[in-house]
From TrEMBL:
Protein name listed in UniProt: Lysine--tRNA ligase
Lineage, uppermost ranks: Bacteria, Bacillati, Bacillota, Clostridia, Peptostreptococcales
HAMAP family linked to this entry: Lys_tRNA_synth_class2 (MF_00252)
Quaternary data: Homodimer.
UniProt cross-references to Gene3D superfamilies, sorted A to Z: Bira Bifunctional Protein, Domain 2, Nucleic acid-binding proteins
Gene source species: Peptacetobacter hiranonis (strain DSM 13275 / JCM 10541 / KCTC 15199 / TO-931) (Clostridium hiranonis)
Length: 508
């Protein structure tokens, strides 16, 4: 099969034609193996330079011999010479391959190589008449044979679902996709260094738990065969980290995957990355300072500025961020002042009047939260702290001294999304037990996201938790904003996808 041009994936193929092309590739592999040139027996290649190093260092490297390696992305053969483009982890570079430099046999074998094959090129750095820095090949080594056909950049792999499923192909065909993940890595390094430099200790806590606690969410449930007990993938690591504060650590954090068995949309994936940090002898105002400075630092290190443009909107993470209580926000955007509504009955009445769904057992605090979600949340485009959440929706937060119906808690929002949640930690074991009991009441009313009772955590509080501030940040949403990504799947290398067989069954 001729590979004179990169046209393999530019045209529509019938399944029969596709099968034929794939078989040709396998036949080529078999021929190479019969010749004793099995590419899969190549164990290593002594690459000396990446493509970018050759291009940026051309003045020093011109005329020198280098060894590059990567995937062949295009191939243009004209008789006794041809050009190929090699793509490595840092970019692309052209190689000029001539029959008189390789020799008749090697050049004949080279012409059988396909788009997608991984090759090593050894040769001289030069610049073509058209001004393109290239490598004049003295030796071409096939390092791995591609048995599949790559989509061509502009005509292939446009199906977003397929791009998420076959991220490895997406990264090859659309190398700019890497940029978001490089930005992600820079931001996470900045996050860790910021906390490490301020005396926080990174720790690890269990992912498999016997109790689903630390947040209001539906857990994934599994079974431990030896212990014969149900276990839960963690929905949060909060309760373990607070145990460490009880044990004498003053500043701890953990970043890792959390798991919630809930809906999937552009902001939600069943497994996602979050960080939680805790500081003894601090409160939620200290956590505000950490949150705004930490996220601003991530933005500046990863993108070069505290200002990012997300879908045409400029968002500036530079501190200090705006602060509003939840009741103030509700009043501003709905016109309802819950400072003047003091009973559950009054709250239920105004909720019905404003078209808010009232669920069985709902109380004033829960209705305030519903008002905020309905009228206020999406208005918070610039970074904003919403503070003083009702006790009913804050089972682990310390009560506010001036109004015990509220808590010393905040959530941070930007682009209408919740990015962070923090509070002065509840360290009164008697109050905490009452909150857990209230969560059990909600569970009995059908709330499958309510917390379970954690007796060991209550015991830890009875041992004594110092005044403590805690903060959790949803990493993926922050990265979405830093990379102008419209879906959480764009910042997860391998997002959760429904198996293809299941999709086909659903369609039927």
């Amino acid at each position: 099969m001729s590979n004179n041009k990169n046209t393999e994936a530019n045209v529509e193929m019938t399944s029969e034609e596709l099968s034929e092309v794939l078989q040709v590739r396998r036949d080529k592999l078999a021929n190479l193996q019969e010749m004793g040139r099995d590419p899969f027996k190549e164990s290593r290649y002594d690459r000396t330079h990446y493509s970018v190093q050759v291009k940026e260092g051309f003045e020093a490297l011109e005329g020198e011999t280098v060894k590059i390696a990567g995937r062949m992305m295009s191939k243009r053969i004209q008789g006794k010479a041809g050009f190929i483009d090699i793509q490595d982890a840092e970019g692309r570079i052209q190689s000029y391959v001539r029959k008189d430099r390789l020799g008749d046999e090697e050049y004949t074998i080279f012409k059988t190589y396909d788009i997608g094959d991984i090759v090593g090129i050894e040769g001289e750095v030069f610049i073509t008449k058209r001004g393109e820095i290239s490598v004049k090949a003295d030796k071409v080594t096939l390092l791995s044979k591609s048995l599949q056909i790559l989509p061509e950049k502009y005509h292939g792999l446009k199906d977003q679902e397929l791009r998420y499923r076959q991220r490895y192909v997406d990264l090859i065909v659309n190398p700019e996709v890497k940029d978001a993940f490089i930005t992600r890595t820079k931001a996470l390094k900045a996050l860790r260094s910021y906390l490490d430099e301020r005396g926080f200790l990174e720790v690890e806590t269990p992912i498999l738990n016997t109790i689903a606690g630390g947040a209001n969410a539906r857990p994934f449930i599994t079974h431990h065969n030896t212990l014969h007990i149900p276990m839960y993938l963690r929905i949060a690591n909060e309760l373990y980290l607070k145990r460490l504060i009880v044990g004498g650590f003053d500043k701890v954090y953990e970043m890792g995957r959390m798991f919630r068995n809930e809906g999937m949309d552009m902001k939600h994936n069943p497994e996602y990355t979050a960080i939680e940090l805790y500081q003894a002898y601090a409160d939620f105002t200290d956590m505000m300072e950490i949150a705004e400075n930490l996220i601003a630092h991530m933005a500046e290190v990863a993108t070069g500025s505290t200002k990012v443009v997300y879908q045409g909107k400029e968002i500036d993470f530079k501190p200090p961020w705006k602060r509003m209580t939840m009741i103030e926000c509700v009043k501003e955007y709905s016109g309802v002042d819950f400072n003047e509504i003091n009973t559950d009955e009054e709250a239920i009445a105004i909720a019905k009047e404003k078209g808010i769904e009232v669920k069985p057992g709902m109380r004033r605090g829960e209705i305030i939260a519903e008002f905020f979600e309905e009228f206020g949340e999406d208005k918070l485009v610039q970074p904003t702290f919403i503070t003083h959440h009702p006790v009913e929706i804050s089972p682990l937060s310390k009560r506010n001294n001036e109004d015990p119906r509220l808590t010393d808690r905040f959530e941070a929002f930007a682009n209408g999304w919740e990015l962070a949640n923090a509070f002065s930690e509840l360290n009164d074991p008697i109050d905490q037990k009452g909150r857990f009991m209230d969560q059990l009441r909600k569970k009995e009313l059908g709330d499958d996201e309510a917390c379970d009772m954690d007796e060991d955590f209550l015991n830890a509080l009875e041992v004594g938790l110092p005044p403590t501030g805690g903060l959790g940040i949803g990493i993926d949403r922050v990265i979405m904003l830093l990379t102008d990504s419209t879906s959480i799947r764009d910042v997860l290398l391998f997002p959760t996808m429904k198996p293809i067989e299941k999709q086909e069954e659903s369609a039927e």
